[in-house]
Amino acid sequence: MIIGLTGSYCSGKDTVAEYIVKNNGFIHFSLSDEIRLLMKEQGIEPTRENLIKFGTDLREKNGNGVLAQSVSKKFEQGKNYCITSIRHTQEVITFKNIKNFVLINVDAPQQIRFNRMQKRKRPGDPQTPEKFIELEQKESQSSGSGQQVALCCKMADIVFVNDINDIDVLYKKIDTLLSDLKSKYHE
Fold it and tell me: Rounded to an integer, what distance in angstroms lies between the CA atom of residue 175 and that of residue 169?
């Protein structure tokens, strides 16, 4: 089974992915990590702004599905994968052409997501709700080679609402989701 995670800013995609990988034997690939590797080779600092620009330029030059194509070449038969940082509709289309792929939109209410961002205190994160909303809009273009997060979310097979502040309850919810997926995909 191949699980793709997309979703809005600070919705908990990484937390969900980490649990799936650590506790269920999935292999993790991040499309953003693919960009970071290429940036490192070129000596470019991996700031959020640079990642967005580099990823957009990469898609413009090599096609909007280039990152998904690169990662999917690494898949081995019979193994389970969890893919994060899916931010363009062509990446979704590329993955959906692979058997047993399911796209999950991890989401949470905007205020919860803003509060999470405030708690993590990453350099470069917006400090006001207005800047947070502005960043989300910037990452949700409707055409071209830039990020299309909102459109990717609409293409999801499942919406997983992560509005839980209790990590153990979240983990149980993920276990239920995985159990349902395994029975559906006969894994």
Answer: 10
